[in-house]
Amino acid sequence: MKDSTLSITGISAAVAASLTWSMNFVAPLVIGKYSIFDLAACRFIIAGLIGGLILIANIKAWRHLTLNDWRVAAGLGFIGYVGYFIAVVIASTYAGPVIAPAFLGLVPVVLAISANVHGGISWRSLKTPFALAALGLLLVNSHSIVRFEGESFTTLAFGIGACVAAVALWAWFGLANQKALMKRPGINPWVWTAMMMIGGSLQTLIFLPAGDALGLFQAPTLGFGQDAIGHLYVPAFVLAAVASIGGAWAWTIATQRLPMALASQLLSLEIVFATCLGLLFCYRWPTALEAMGITLIVVGVVKTISVFHGSAVDKLSVKLIIRQCQRRNENL
């Protein structure tokens, strides 16, 4: 990542990652009677297989990697994908499909704030775009919050705990992934993505017996034949190829080229894309609050980019002035 300029490639990659990951929110609408666990298991296993093909195609790019590199990638695969998904499912089950999305919408804001704790950009410059994004996320989820019908305190507390865990896991993944990539500046984004997916796939295989014992899977009852093609195999393959592999690859590029505080703010576009996809599936226009929320998120993202662009220009100007002074001193 170069501090002197903002990478158009990095910004485009972060937006692409947000778009691909937004598919996760509409996937449950197309799986019929199959459970979300059926979809997740197929998805992560297929993602691991695709990851294996990527490694075969790029064998020279990963031969030098160490066992520690594989351990780090596998750990990130669990934190950002398998573990995060399990936390989201628990959150949706116990807190309901209403409160969970509202909490998960805070991920970009929490990640952006965490990434800027150690400095980089003045908090005064970031408070307005952060506030706009937070308010926009709240408005987009407002219809869900208003519809919430209370559960028992114990159930709700457990669900909210899972929500907090999911937010913490993804914030942890964002920061840890950037730190890992900074230690491996020359690593191929495709190879790093494949390593994380293979790690997540192996962890999924380990989880299968426990999930089957808990009765989480419907596929053994519904069957793995022709009916599973449209409701299970195709959605799982699309999510694996586009959301898992494509999204992780795009996020790796964004992480390599952008400050995390900016990349995470761009991630708030995920809820915009998810809302738009959800509206298409429901054949309706957004409500006034949803439209206002989407607008605020986009404005917040644009203002964040302008803040970091201004900072980059200022740093570049300072460097140019220093170089000019050094040249004058050399001439003297």
Ordered list of secondary-structure elements with their pairings:
Blueprint: H1 8-21, H2 36-57, H3 59-62, H4 67-94, H5 96-104, H6 107-115, H7 123-140, H8 142-146, H9 153-183, H10 189-213, H11 219-222, H12 227-257, H13 260-266, H14 269-282, H15 288-331
Helix pairs in contact: 1-12, 1-14, 2-10, 2-12, 4-5, 4-9, 4-10, 5-9, 6-9, 6-13, 7-15, 10-12, 14-15
List keywords for this structure.
332 residues; mainly alpha; disordered N terminus
Can you walk me through this structure?
This protein is mainly alpha-helical. It has one domain. It is 80% helix and 0% strand. The chain contains 15 helices and no strands. It has helices at residues 8-21, 36-57, 59-62, 67-94, 96-104, 107-115, 123-140, 142-146, 153-183, 189-213, 219-222, 227-257, 260-266, 269-282, 288-331. Helix 1 packs parallel to helix 14 (269-282), helix 4 packs across helix 10 and helix 6 runs antiparallel to helix 13 (260-266). It starts with 7 loop residues before the first helix and ends with a helix. Residues 1-5 and 312-326 have low confidence and may be disordered.
- What count of domains describes the coordinates? 1
Low-confidence stretches: 1-5, 312-326
Distance between the termini: 35 Å
Order of helical and strand elements? HHHHHHHHHHHHHHH
Q: In DSSP terms, counting alpha (H) and pi (I) runs of 4 or more, how many helices?
A: 15
Radius of gyration: 21 Å
Brief overview, please?
Helices cover 80% and strands 0% of the residues.
